[in-house]
Specification:
Two copies of one chain form a homodimer. Chain A is mainly α and 209 residues long. Chain A has two domains: 1-59, Orthogonal Bundle (Arc Repressor Mutant, subunit A), CATH 1.10.10; 61-209, Tetracycline Repressor, domain 2, CATH 1.10.357. Chain A contains ten helices and no strands. The longest helix of chain A is centred in the last third of the chain and has 27 residues, at 127-153. Chain A starts with a helix and ends in an 8-residue tail after the last helix. Chain A binds a DNA duplex (30 and 30 nucleotides) through helix 4.
DNA sequence: CACGCAACCTAACAAGTGTTAGTTATGTAC
DNA sequence: GTACATAACTAACACTTGTTAGGTTGCGTG
């Protein structure tokens, strides 16, 4: 039987898998395959343990997925807040906005399986899990709202844009990249620049006729 | 037993449910609850029949969901193509683009459970179903690409925009509205205008300093 | 060397899944 | 009234799911 060898492909035989190990594997699988088709047995197998053992670290599957959702948002939130706050105090609205957009995309596409898993599976998890994740989510949304409101108060943004609306549009558009972005076809930075260009200046040629 | 009455709540006792009836119910449930948590038994119960009876009309669950995915895209495609082709031949690029955006959003948020179900569950269905749905999907994407390429050739679009990239960005942003749009807070038309405004002109105040 | 704890395993449970085969009721055509 | 197709029902199948209870292993501490 090659069954023994097959197991060793995914199992590295180093120290304990632990709570973090399970979370890492689960986040990756959720991102790749969605919530519904990733069972505890699948997570356990990839992590190199047995399904029942997961209950040593977690009380339920919901607890796992909620933990992933929360840390996923916090990762993006941190990345974005840091990028904005590290701008020079006299930075222009455009520069700040570009930094925020780039940070969000980087967290999503580069840094964290947790962030991408969040975007992918949020709409698939049980309502109770979604509700439990809402506060963390609202906190990140508030960060964007406060940034956009500041830029609007400065007069940098057009005065007829609705901040909440713009935030939904921005984050929605950025998150959608997860569905098709391929690092082999271009860098995250180039993608971010592209998106920022559209949001900042639009796509129509300036009319000079 | 009130079991008989309970059944009658969802069952209207009119003629046969039929293939179309099953599809309508399935599309609605998929849109509302996602793919994974909608079983054949749930579909059957809401439709007012028993689970096994579904196999009179369909060969498998995959066949149901694929049918929904296909008609979902075709509905948006038709709506968008009609909106564009019914524009005056001297219509400006901006007007045409606004019509296309509005049509896509209307199909998604107003018209069809199939369209919204498609967007919601595409990422959750088995790979084989996704593959089978791809041709229909590509056809719609090609429609957008050809429209955008035309506008770019006219010189209406900035010459440095990548058509494929812009299409992905546009459709991604529009589809994301499904996740939060609430008809009680505003009309689809107002939403479409908002989105078109951003894409066309951007959000930054024109600099006159 | 014994103890204790952390981290895991084994084996089973009840519930739910898609699917199938065989059966039944209802109408329509000849 | 017989024949046939339509549209459903019933009951079971093999399987997967999250979850639980109790047992086992190995390692560090006293």
């Amino acid at each position: 039987m090659s069954n023994l060898e097959t197991n060793q492909v995914t199992q590295q035989a180093r120290g304990p898998v632990g709570r973090e190990g399970v979370l890492d594997v689960a986040a990756r699988l959720f991102r790749e395959q969605g919530y519904g088709s990733v069972s505890l047995r699948k997570i356990a197998q990839v992590a190199g343990i047995k399904a029942g053992s997961i209950y040593y670290h977690f009380g339920s599957k919901d607890e796992i997925v909620l933990s992933i959702l929360d840390t996923g948002i916090m990762a993006v939130h941190d990345e974005m807040r840091l990028a904005v706050s590290s701008q020079a105090s006299d930075a222009s609205a455009e520069v700040i906005l570009r930094a925020a957009i780039t940070a969000h995309l980087r967290a999503l596409l580069d840094v964290s399986d947790y962030s991408s898993a969040n975007v992918r599976i949020f709409g698939q998890v049980p309502q109770s899990v979604r509700d439990a994740n809402l506060p963390t989510r609202r906190s990140y949304e508030a960060e964007w709202d406060s940034l956009l409101a500041r830029l609007k108060a400065n007069g940098a943004l057009k005065q007829d844009v609705d901040v909440r609306h713009l935030r939904l549009m921005l984050i929605g558009a950025l998150n959608a990249t997860l569905e098709w972005f391929d690092p082999k076809r271009g860098s995250v930075e180039a993608l971010a620049k592209n998106y920022a260009d559209v949001f900042v200046h639009g796509i129509l040629e300036k009319q000079d006729n």
